[in-house]
């Protein structure tokens, strides 16, 4: 097996002082860091504070940020919620995906508190599904084993921000050999204006275990900017399996930044699904590391932008051992003056022979003012591999439209059918029917400009 390296070839984010025209820094101070009372978590936050002070906000002179300009971010205006104050409650529909469906547990994270439920039978098997603050008190040794192992606070300003000041998070731990048959669900609800919503997801699936986990980020629309900065760390052990579905329907005022990294060991399997219909601007780094022979990872994404939305997904598939397989497919549709960016890289380490890697990005541009940038990439340092990539940016197929119109289907319904068919293969990977229907409806609302 090829040993995992702490860094692999990828786009370099350069650290440098703020340049003219860059966004101003955040107005957060060390005394805003929440004391956890758990040595591992407190030490982690102190180290993150040091990284936070040493870094500056990124700008378009850095390759990874060249197509995403954050100079209009009012970073100095945000406050971190302290659990007090009045915020809107999550809408009923957001908390109903499990109603009438078999499930294992649900967590709701809001600025005002946390609500946690886990089936007692799963808890009796050693499954931990709780918020991070509770995990720090009830499972400090487990948390110490996992926290910060995959995403380091010093990745950039936003990862340091989430690590140092984060107050909302989910901790999922499945012991060796335990099968969690029913899906788990969590929601981060982020109401309010001028708020910094900071989150951390920790998912650790031990050898031979399995689980399905759906996490959602959502908020209402507000009149002024708010921020989300998040970290996601995922470990899939030897022979283990995880289906992780990550969905965001942030309000149009949210500036959304996240660093996400998954590690899959020998013969492990990760099915990672992304969905994005919200936010004003999103910059997401998602990295898949296949570290053990026979590891398999699939990354599926869908996004629909309209208005002035800007979504930038930066994905990395790293093959660090022989006989590993990765498969990435991202699909997007764009309306209005919106813009999407997808940057993808498949990296094959020296000695990672018999690698099978694939990546594709497909875009439907539904407006003459919308723009989709698609940048696939390969870096292969082994000589017995099969790696391919592809990208398409185009309008609705005229032949498909003619076929439907010739059978008496009105133009607006024909376009709806084409868009639904375009997204359906990825939508079917969402395990909760009510969640799937909600996102399908969000896409249709955008398509027909319904608020």
Key features of this structure:
451 residues; alpha/beta; 3 domains; disordered N terminus
Commentary on this structure:
This protein is α/β, with parallel strands linked by helices. The chain folds into 3 domains: 14-254, no CATH class; 292-394, no CATH class; 396-451, no CATH class. The chain is 19% helix and 37% strand. It has helices spanning 39-54, 120-124, 132-138, 140-146, 157-165, 398-405, 411-427, 433-447; strands spanning 105-110, 113-118, 128-131, 168-174, 184-189, 196-205, 210-218, 226-236, 241-249, 254-264, 269-276, 281-290, 296-305, 310-319, 325-334, 339-348, 355-365, 371-375, 378-380, 385-394. Strands 2-1-5-7-9-11-13-15-17-20 form a 10-stranded mixed β-sheet. Helix 1 (39-54) runs antiparallel to helix 5, helix 3 (132-138) packs across helix 4 and helix 6 (398-405) crosses helix 7 (411-427). It is globular and about 65 Å long. Mean pLDDT is 91; it is low at 1-7 and 9-20.
